[in-house]
Here is the input.
Amino acid sequence: MRPQMFCFPYAGGSSRAYVPLRQALGQVADVHLVELPGRGSRIRDRPVDRLAPLLDDLLPTLLPHLDQPIVLFGHSLGALLAFETARLLRTRHGRVPARLIVSGHRAPHLPLRESRIHHLPDDAFVTRLRELNGTPDEVLRNADLMRLLLPALRADFTVSECYRLVPGEPLDCPISVYGGTRDADIPVADLHAWARHTRGRCRVDLFAGDHFFLHTEEVALVRALCRDLQW
Here is the structure.
């Protein structure tokens, strides 16, 4: 069976960020782009700023595919969502993914290293977003668009910055971990620490670039994903 790969976006991102991956991986997997409420095709939906209801919102997307091998992939906030979705699938449906692929995020039991920004006033919040380099500058400079997007952006950062791991048994699937060599907020040791969360193999791959290496190292990223999808 072809793997069904579900891609969870990073904070402030939409499913559009993964369109190039879906095109590149079409020969090896069916790639599903998960859209969070409040952006993209779900722009009219109210953003969700708490983890549990957000997972409840996203899980039904996967349910029609439980009879097929499922791979969960996410970058940054998306890595947390992929990890917690894997745990929820096990708890509610007795299933675990064939593989979990997490990118650009410390292991979930480790404390937040970055300063929190979700509570900042709008101007300071937007300034910090610009420094993080994950939101296109043309979006940040568009006042009307930012008024529309700010609730979703704040919701994403609230979920990420308020996350606390609920202890549980390790997953029974292998975990692939991707990180950027110049990601100042995610030391390599924080990537290797994901090994605690699986009884299987945990493999770490490093890519040249900062936190958003997935946009600058697409060829290397696709090569790694193709390898990990063909387990």
